[in-house]
Amino acid sequence: MSTERTTGLTYEDLLEMFPEEDNVRRELIGGELILSPAPSFRHQQVVVRMVVALDAYARAHDGEALVAPFDVKLTDRDVVEPDVLYFGREARRRIEERYVQSAPDLVVEVSSPTTRRVDLVRKRDLYERFGVPEYWFLDLDADRVEVFHLADGRYGPSSLLGRADTLKSSLLPGLELSVDAILGPPPG
Questions:
Q1: Burial zone of 115 (CB within 10 Å; 0-12 exposed, 13-18 middle, 19+ buried)
Q2: Given the DSSP bridges, would you call strands 78-80 and 166-168 parallel, antiparallel or unpaired?
């Protein structure tokens, strides 16, 4: 199989084409290959803060928090690697060794210049279509968090949270995260 083929791909094609991990994120949306380079230092700092907070919550509530790279195989042609994933007690049973074959309860994406449009348009639409109850977009450029809640199968207008706000989730009762603490020091 040629590595130049970028559309009509399946999960099996990805495994065949790229058997080794090399810090390049490979996702499929509608069978189209989406490549992303390794993220920036600040991006990774924010991801670590988020996964640490969600992992603490998960341990106390019998859930599971995971960090990329970990495949979310929604269909054979829709495979994404969100920055952070959260699975509640029931959803965590669907996690397999290499991937999960269903929607997580919560997806967190942290902005990168190379992934912004994909995260806010294509992946957001995919998360909506496959019923991800909450989607958080941590926007490092705008220095805020955008929260999408699924209602009647659709994401309504997002809630925008600035540094002075507290991130809460109807999905995760009792979880309260300082947006300022999650985003860390403003870029310099």
A1: buried
A2: unpaired
**What is the spatial distance between Cα 145 and Cα 157, in angstroms, rounded to a whole number?**
13
User: Percent of the chain, pLDDT > 70?
Assistant: 94
SS3 24: coil
Q: Which two tokens stand for residue 14?
A: 């990805």
5 vs 132: CA distance, rounded Å = 29
Beta bridge partners of 114: none
CA distance linking residue 176 with residue 179, whole number of Å: 9
- Side chain identity at residue 117, one-letter code: R
pLDDT given at position 1:
32
Instruction: For 47-104, write each residue's pLDDT tens digit.
Output: 999 999 999 999 999 999 999 889 999 999 999 999 999 999 998 889 988 889 889 9
The domains found in the chain, sorted by start residue, are 39-183 (3.90.1570.10)
Report the alpha-carbon distance of residue 93 to residue 64 in Å, rounded.
10
Inform me whether the pLDDT recorded for 155 exceeds 90. Answer: yes
- What's CA 1's distance to the chain center, in Å? 29
Query: Phi and psi dihedrals of 105, rounded to 5?
Result: -75, -35
Residue indicated by tokens 């790229």 = 18
